[in-house]
Amino acid sequence: MDVAIPCQVKPHPVTGIANGKLAIWLFLASEVMLFGALFSSYILLRTNAETWPRGHDILSVPLATLNTAVLITSSVTMVMAWAQLMMGNFSKGRKYLAVTLSLACVFLVVKFFEYKDKFHHYQVWFNTPTMVAGHEVTTITGHIEEKTDDFIKFLPDPPKGHKAEAGHHEPIKIETSQIKRLSNYGPWHSNFFAVYFTMTGLHGLHVIGGIIVIGYLLGPGAKLWHRDRQFYINRIENTGLYWHFVDLVWIFLFPCLYLI
Questions:
Q1: Looking at residue 211, what is its pLDDT?
Q2: How confident is the model at residue 228 (pLDDT cuts 50, 70, 90)?
Q3: DSSP characters over 7-18
Q4: Are residues 180 and 238 in the same domain?
Q5: Domain span at residue 133?
Q6: 129 and 113 in one domain?
Q7: Predicted confidence (pLDDT) per residue in 33-76, tens digit
Q8: What is the pLDDT of residues 12-44, one digit of tens each?
Q9: 75 assigned to some structural domain
Q10: What is the model's pTM?
Q11: Is 10 within a domain?
Q12: Are residues 142 and 230 in the same domain?
């Protein structure tokens, strides 16, 4: 015997909203506390640090801008999917869901290439000031071309704001005895990158969660449309609330990490 669960679609007489929407709002409240704690930690670390790098000097602002546009567009297509379903247009609603899913995947692909670059980009600290391309430096950044126990062949980055010049676009040989520390731009590199990978990585996991839910509603879960149309639309709306939150978190991450 089937027992109907009350207030799945219709507003609950006490809360004034359906149970599913109440649940997603409570979940999002806990997410606000989670990311609020992370943003607070970021502020405390930054304000108490003697030095803090500028995000636009070491992160890819163009890629982050592209990802911002991708997520904002995906929020629009999510709303369009819900609107088409409300009007009874199932095929168009699914198309907008498919676009939302595709844009979410594009976001992760762009983030993968951004992460990959950081793990292949190194900083070298020297034991004593060393001449590199005619300049005395204590540290340089770039990419490793070859690495042995005795030396590394290192391709230095050109000076910030300058095009590659002679001596900057050719590898240099650095003896291992000259190196005080060698580290790529992973989370262990500095507090900045620890914060960067923690916050963007956690956000990426939320994007993956959204992909799984949207993919289910687009695929096997779409059968619910034919059994209980309003219940299916309700699930799309709740998923949309979650997806807009994911978008909103990125809108805060983008300026905090990349621009200031």
A1: 97
A2: confident
A3: TSSSPPTTTSS-
A4: no
A5: 122-184
A6: no
A7: 999 999 999 999 999 998 899 999 999 999 999 999 999 999 99
A8: 666 667 778 888 999 999 999 999 999 999 999
A9: yes
A10: 0.88
A11: no
A12: no
Is the CB of residue 185 less than 8 Å from the CB of residue 207? no
pLDDT score of 171 more than 90: no
The CATH number of whichever domain residue 204 belongs to comes to: 1.20.120.80
Say whether pLDDT at 169 is over 70.
no
Confidence of residue 170 (pLDDT cuts 50, 70, 90): confident
Q: Are residues 27 and 110 in the same domain?
A: yes
Residue 13 CB: number of other CB atoms within 10 A? 8
Q: Is the pLDDT of residue 159 over 80?
A: no
Given its phi and psi angles, is residue 161 left (phi above 0), alpha (psi -120 to 50 degrees) or beta?
left
Domain count, the chain: 2
CA–CA distance from 202 to each of 80, 150, 210 (Å)?
Answer: 27, 38, 13
Q: Based on the fold, state whether residues 24 and 108 are members of the same structural domain.
A: yes
At position 189, the amino acid (one-letter code) is H
Can you give the C-alpha Rg of the chain in angstroms? 24
- Res 1 pLDDT > 90: no
97 & 199 share domain: yes
CA–CA dist 230, 10 (Å, integer): 10
Asked which of 184, 199, 227 is the last residue of a domain, the reply is 184
